[in-house]
Amino acid sequence: MASAKKNLPESRRRRDPEATRAAILEAAEELFLTLGPADTPTSRIARRAGVTKSLIHHHFGSKDDLWNEVKQRHFGQYYEAQREILTSSRGSTDMLKDSLVGYFRFLQDNPHAVRYMSWRFIEEGEDHCKPEEDQLFELGAERIREAQDGGELRADIEPVTMIKAFLAMALHWFQSKPLMDQILGPEEDLDALEERYLEDAVKILLDGVRSRRATAD
Amino acid sequence: MASAKKNLPESRRRRDPEATRAAILEAAEELFLTLGPADTPTSRIARRAGVTKSLIHHHFGSKDDLWNEVKQRHFGQYYEAQREILTSSRGSTDMLKDSLVGYFRFLQDNPHAVRYMSWRFIEEGEDHCKPEEDQLFELGAERIREAQDGGELRADIEPVTMIKAFLAMALHWFQSKPLMDQILGPEEDLDALEERYLEDAVKILLDGVRSRRATAD
DNA sequence: TATCTTATTGACCGGCCGGCCAGTTAGCGT
DNA sequence: ACGCTAACTGGCCGGCCGGTCAATAAGATA
Predict the structure, then answer these.
(1) Among B76, B67, B61, B75, which residue's Cα sits nearest to residue B25?
(2) Which of A18, A46, A108, B39 could cysteine-pair with A53, CB 3.0–4.6 Å?
(3) Which of A184, A212, A210, A93 shows the shortest CA–CA distance to B215?
(4) How far apart are the C-alpha atoms of B179 and B114, rounded to whole Å?
């Protein structure tokens, strides 16, 4: 009864449902996030994945289902990264700096995440990823409240606003980035500017959020 | 020879190209920005405008041309509002506060502008509106540099970063708003929260940007 | 080996969408 | 009054897209 299900991983299996699913997902993610869901024909996803269009329907049902799967999968990474940033960093205001830098690096390394966020903003349908994200928000707000009670962060500001400030500063850079290097010449020195921007953003936000009495290092 | 071109504005002209163009543009703007360009059939634009589909092609050429026209037109308003905010406000740091509040109010009153910005971020094609916007950026940066030289704003931060900080804080709220009231119940008290957010954002940004020596009012 | 499951295929359908075209009519100049 | 230009119409076409279905064969089970 004990099934020896995968007893031939050595030779290339001619049928490999999981690999097929993975290939479709990968192709779909790439295309959906660059062309947009509406402008991405399933046929093209299939071609890129080296599969027939019918297989997409076989494995995922409909195009919308596939899109939801991509979103949820992608949000997994995003969610993990965020959570680690929020929990790993040690106390007080350092956490905020680490969060901002960490989030910034994450977006830097995952351009898809930026486009994904943009699509979420634009689409109207329900968002399956929301509860997990809210939980994340709650986690961050809690840590901020602690710092407020400890006198490290100013208490006259809603924690949610602080979080949004950090998210906004990081995300906005990458959202507007394609608009910028479009006019800045091919790649003049946008990367150097990017580092400078991060440094400045840290300065602004930390000083704007720190308790008035605390004198910086 | 002096043409009396428009000598019958009183009785309803049965043919009125300009009015037709305007009707099409208005319908297109509404639909494009809510459904997205890809999900908006020209037939539906035509129906909404009370016109035949053919007329769209007659007046605008192609669907893409119409979309570009909408973008450019919409940017007009956006551009005007921004420019007025930047130039009208009197000296120093008050300008920044006024800019943020003004921009925030503008987005509040023009939900379309938010979606428009999001589409600009996502689309890849050239952006016809860019030069005017850059001019606006330059204007703002100049005023910030003056304040930096005058010792009112800290000088260790790139002016562009300051501008982006203000834009990001305002825009991000409205971008993420639909995601928020989706989980917050129908309309719990999102508007009250909105005002609170604006106040907090002003606090964070102004304190983060003000010169270290200047003691606030 | 015989059998059952299911991954995989290719052909096909109904529908919609963008664009075109031939024809009609309103307004404006002469 | 006449004719020209351009606004406007209805109808149609070619193409693509999402989805279905019957048929095939690979792999697991026994």
Answers:
(1) B67
(2) A46
(3) A212
(4) 14
| Three-state DSSP state, A153 | strand
Q: Cβ of B18: how many Cβ atoms within 10 Å?
A: 10
CA separation for the pair B104, B87 (Å, rounded): 16
CB atoms within 10 A of CB A181: 14
* pLDDT digit string, tens, across residues A165-201: 999 999 999 999 988 876 665 556 888 899 999 999 9
Inter-CA distances, B61 with A21, A80, B54, B65, B167, Å: 42, 48, 10, 6, 35
* Nearest residue in B to A165, CA atom: B169
Q: Do B172 and A173 touch (CB under 8 A)?
A: no
d(CA B32, CA B156): 42
Over the stretch B112-126, which tens digit does the pLDDT of each residue have?
Answer: 889 989 998 998 777
A53 C-beta less than 7 Å away from strand C? yes
Query: Whole-prediction pTM value?
Result: 0.88
Tokens of A140: 């961050």
